[in-house]
Amino acid sequence: MTPAARWRSPRAGFAAALVLALVAAGAQGVLSTRDATPPVTSTARVGETAVLGGTTVVVDAVTTAAALPAAEAGDPDVAGPAGSVLVLVVFTQRVDATVDLERHFCTSTLVADDGSVWDTDDELGYRLRRPEASTCGDDASDPIRPGEPRQIGASFLIPARYADQVRWRLSLEDDRTRLEVRP
Asked: What superkingdom heads the lineage (predicted)?
């Protein structure tokens, strides 16, 4: 092999590897553009209605307190540890016939101004007086029926210092939209 051929061979291999890497990166970019595209965010206040794709959401109430009523009549109020507050968000969802119920689910979080995020606390939620449904998704015991309202309760336990700094965020995963409510 001539010196020129030896020099070209590694360069050609490198160039081929570079082209393959760029093609793979481009394909991955095309496949993941959905994840890279930020969701569309709507805002509302308590009592207002928001339409997110084929889902209508009414924010019924946002209650923040050191203690909230227990699910069982006669039980003492439910309280968190010292220095915490409970937040209960009650909202009504109505989906139209265009919503794919197998892909319809949501994430309910509280977000603070400093970027702190809290997920729902299901253990707490089962102890509170709230709507039976705790998620937007279909449930065998409480299926979603297009056109019919479904009241949902989401409960959170957060540090008391964040009580007046949080907003509730409902993210609908099926159409990449979300609603933010500042109580």
From this structure: Bacteria
Residues 29, 84: Cα–Cα separation, whole Å: 42
Which stretches within 57-158 are classed as H helix?
122-127
Q: Which residues contact 65 (CB under 8 A, 6 or more apart)?
A: 85, 86
Write the DSSP symbol of residue 77: P
List the single range of 8-17, 115-124, 171-180 with lowest mean pLDDT.
Answer: 8-17
Token pair belonging to 44: 């509302």
Domain 39-181 grouped into CATH 3.90.226.10: no
Query: What number of CA atoms fall less than 13 Å from residue 71's CA on the CB side?
Result: 12
Cα(23)–Cα(102) distance, integer angstroms: 33
Q: What is the pLDDT of residues 117-139, one digit of tens each?
A: 999 887 887 888 888 777 777 66
